[in-house]
Amino acid sequence: xxxxxYQGNVLFILLGAIMVLAMHAGFAFxxxxxxxxxxxxxxxxxxxxxxxxxxxxxxxxGYSLAYGLDFxxxxxxxxxxxAYDLVKFFFLLTFAAAIPAIISGGIAERAKFNPQLIxxxxxxxxxxxFFEGATWNGNYGFQAFLENNFGAAFNDFAGSVxxxxxxxxxxxxxxxxxxxxxxxxxxxxxLIAIPPSNIPFLALGSWILTxxxxxFNVMSAQTLEGVSGLxxxxxxxxxxxxxxxxxxxxxxxxxxxxxxxLAGLVAVCAxxxxxxxxxxxxxxxxxxxxxxWTFSLAQIKWKIxxxxxxxxxxxxxxxxxxxxxxxFGLEYxxxxxxxxxxxxxxxxxxxxxxxxxxxYIVYSLVHKLMxxxxxxxxxxxxxxxxxxxxxxMTRD
Length: 396
Description:
mainly alpha, globular
């Protein structure tokens, strides 16, 4: 029976890794459907290449930095290693690789290819695992500090802050450094609308992400024994809440509608193991409305040309999710308890600080050494032709 349970756990976390791996196709098609046709090949190429470079960075540096484990032993020794430990690396890698996938949507249509890959390597190798290890492995005494001072550790069950807020706030730093796309704003600062190029592809990306997210959240338990139906139902309720809020606040705009479920799912990750389903619904409703409101505010008033709105979607909704776990996770609001508002607030702010400062340093360095921004001529021609020498649609 022990052997059967062990092998079941191996298969369980392997299936989780495969589901989260599939989410990267969702990131790709969400970006493809949003960017202009002349940048669609580049969007697909970035997600595939970023995942590969993230694997190298996490295998050789990031996983060891976060968990103190490495794979430098000979193959015979590795084969004797726990199968579960090896598959767990794969599962956590898919989370780490989500960081550059998130950033990709923010800096779309004007970033050079190779400098972006170098930035992805540095982020997944050093910046992301620093906070991942502090939160999920207790490194640097971070969780002990919170527990001693505020009565509980920082609860981020499936990565509202560790993954999503990190990716979103790094993306904000990158967008600020790159600046807006040429032609996005008039000389007097008025926004020039650039509608999504392909709503069906955008919708496909959203659906792939939504389905994969149940592996992202539920299988963050990492063992069959730890599986919670509450996590699944809370994810569902937050997804629905985000969708309905984005539909109403976004006034039936399909771009907002198909990002609504993602906003809800981003926010519910942190406290999906704690919320009552009604609390999860409220968290999703707030996240959907927050995304629509801040996306418009960032683009129009603050002149932040974040193409897919990854800072509002992942950065702000992720931060909301981290803080919300300290509200709706409390027993007073029907939650499981075991959390405090201050621990969630401080943990969330720490994640934001690490992400923005780390992201700003990495992108400033890469931009200074290699000039990460496409030239005006290459941007006008589109990244597909200027980088990959091919269009997304070949015609006779």
